[in-house]
Amino acid sequence: MSGALFAEQLRAHRASAGLTQAELAGRAGISERAVSDIERGLRRHVYAVTARSLADALGLGPADAAVFEAAARPARSTSVTSTGPVWGTDWRNLRRTSMLGRETEFDQVLDALTDESTRLLTITGTGGVGKSRLAAEVCWRIESDEPGRVVWVPLAGLLQSELLLATVATALGVGAAAGEELPAVLARVLDQRRTLLVLDTFERLLGAAPALGVLLDRATHLRILVTSRAPLRVRGEREQPLDALPEPVAAELFRERVRSARPGLNLEDGDAARLVTDICRPLAGVPLALELAASRVRHMPLHLLSFELERPLEVLTDGERDLPERQRTMRSTISWSHDLLGAGDQAVFRRLAAFAGGWTLNAAEQVCAADRVIAAISRLCEHGLVEPDPATTPARWRLLDPIREYAAEQLAASPEADAVARRHAEFYAELAATAAPLLLGSRQGEIRRSLRDEVANLRAALGSATQARADPEVALRAVGALWMFWRLEGAFEEGRIWIQRALDLPEADDSPSRANALWGAAWLSYQRGDVPAATAYGEELLKRSTAPEAALDCRNALTILGHVAIAQRRFADALPLLEEALELARASNASWHVATSLLNLGTVLLRQGAPRRAVEVLEEAVAGHDAAGDRHFAAHSLIELGYAFLIWGKVEEAAARFAAATRTFLDLEERWGAAEAVAAFAVLASVSGHAQTAAVLSGASEAAYAEMSTRVMVPDAELGAPFMAHARAVLGETEWRLGVQGGRGLSVEEAAQLALRTLGPPSAT
Fold first, then answer.
1. What's the rounded Cα separation, in Å, for the pair 468 and 505?
2. Most buried residue, 311, 564, 685, 764, by CB count within 10 Å?
3. Which of 523, 517, 436, 448 is nearest to 477 (CA)?
4. The pTM is what?
5. What's the fold here for domain 91-241?
C-alpha cells in the first residue's frame, strides 16, 4: 500500500488512543521524529518491525493490527516468478552472468521509468544484443527499492496475439467473471498495485500492441516495460534502442566468458590479446555472438578459432545484405556454430525448435526421434547452442530465443517440419492426459508444479493442434485433460479460450475426446459465473452421453446442470440431478466421482435447509477425498462441512473444519480456495461476535474474488448473509465500511493467517 495510507491510519489510531506523538514514540521505542515523519508521509518505507511496534503501542486488536501492518508494506503484486498460479522462467536467472558495458543504457531506462511522463518504454534491438538481460537488471534495481512491484511475463513461446491479455491475467492470477471485460479487470488490478509490467520478447505479438494502450488509458499508475526487436508503434511509446557493445567492452565480455569456459587460459600476452581482438572484430559487439564464440575455446585454440570464425562470417554476411548488419552477424555466428555440427546433431538441433520454454530429456527423445539424444544435446551445449538449466529437477535445457528462431528456420526448410510439430503436440497431449488423473490424488501438488514448468510447451502444442488443418483429436484430448489444471490454477480465462478453439475445429464434433472438453468448458464457464454458457455445454454433454459406456459422461453432465440449478436457486430441481449423478458414479465404481458427487449432494442439502443430513453426506465426501489423496477437494468438502456445522449451531466444529481447509489451501498455494476459506471465516467471525474481524475478512475475500475470474454464486453468499448482516448492524455502517476497506488491502494469504490466529482452534496456528 502507499505511505500516505499508512500515515492516515497511524494518525487515526493515535488520535483514537489519545496519545501524542511523543507518547506513542516512547511506547513504541522509536523517536518522536520518526512518528512525525511517518504521519507526514515522508517515509517511503516503514519497516515491518516498526509497524508491529506501533501496532502494539497503540493496543490494536488482531484485525486492526493486520490491516495496519499490511498498510506499511509495498503494494502487493504477483510475478510470474513467484509461487502460486503463475508460470514461467524466473527473470532473476538472467542475472547469473555479469552485464558489461550497459551502464549508460541502464541509467537511461531507469530514469525513463521514474519519469511520470513515461508510461510505455520499449527496449529495441536485434536478437542476442541483450534486451532481456538489461530489462532484468533494471527490474532487480526496482525490486530492491520497491519489492513486489515487478510483474514479468515471458512471451517467447506465445504466438497468438489474442491470448496476450489472458496470459497476463494468468501470470497475475486474475481474470474476468462473466459480464466483465478482461482489460477492465487487469487495469484495475495493475493500477491498484502500481505495477511495472514487463513483457519480454514481444516481437511476435505486435498485433496485440493496441491492447496495451487500452490498459494504460485505464490504469493511470501502470508502467509497461517491453523488450522487442521492433517498436510497438502505439501512442505514448518511448523507445530505448540497444546497440552493439563497443570493441573494448566486447573484448572484455569475450575474455570473461572464455575464462569461465577454460580457466587458466592466458589471454593477456601479446599474441593472445591480438587474437582476442581479431576474434571479436567480426562479431560486431553482439553479446550472444561473443558468448557462442567463447564456448568454442573449450576445444579449439584461439588461433584456430580466429581463422575458422572469420572466413564463414565473410561468406555468410555477403549473402544477407537485406538484413541489418548486427542481425547478419548474429545469424552468421549461429550458422557458423551450426555448420560445425555433424548431420545427426544438426537434425536434433532443428527439431529442438519445436520446444518453447525448454524441455526434459524424455520430451527431447520423443519429439526428436533420434538415437542418443542426450549425447547430441551435450555436444550442442559445448557449441553454445543449447543452454542447460542447473536449477531444475528433472534436468531441463533450452534454446535462447535468437538461436531457437534460427533452428525454427532450419526446421521449416526441412521436409520433416509437420512431423516434428505433430510429435510435439502429441507428446504434450499425452503428458496432459497422464497428469490429469494425478491432479486428483496425493501427488497433485507435484503434478501442478511439473505442469507449470511446461506451460510454454503446452501453449505451443495447443497452438499447432488448434490450427484448421490439425487433427482435432489431439487438441480435444489435450484441453480435456488440462481443464482441471486451469481450474486449480485459477486460469479460467486462458482455459476457456483454448477449449473453445478446440471445440470449434472442423470435425471436432465426432471426436471421442469432445465429452471431456465439454465438461471442462462447462466448469470453467460456471466458475466465471457464466451460467448460460455452462448450461449450454452441460446440455450438449448430456445429449452425447446416452450410451451405457458413457455413464460417467452422463454423471458429469448431470453434475453441471445440478450446479446450474443451485446457482439459479432451483434447489428442488438440483436434488434429483445430483442424486442421479451419485448413483451413476457408484455404479461405475469411480471413487473420486463418488466423493465429489457426495460433496455436490451435501451442497444442495445444506441450501435446502437440511444441515444435519448435509453433515452426514459431507463427512462421507471428506473421507472419500482423503482416501483418494485429493487434498484440494477434501478442503472444499471441509468448507461445506464447516458451513453445515455452523448452521446447525456447532460453532467449534465449524471452526475446526474451516481451519483445516485453510491450512490445506495455503499449503497448496491455492488463492481461489484460500479466498473461499477467508469468506467462510468471515461468517464464523460474525457468529462468534468478532464483528470487526468479520468486516476485515469480508473485504479481503471480496478483493481476492474480484481479482480472479470467478465469482461467488448467490446461493453460496446467502448461506452466511444473515450472520454477516447481524455483525454489520452491531458494528455500525461506518465502522463496517472502514473494516472492509482495510481488509481489501490484505493479501488473501495474510487474511487467512489472520483468520487462523483469531478464530481457528489452537492447532490451527
1. 6
2. 685
3. 517
4. 0.80
5. Rossmann fold (3.40.50)
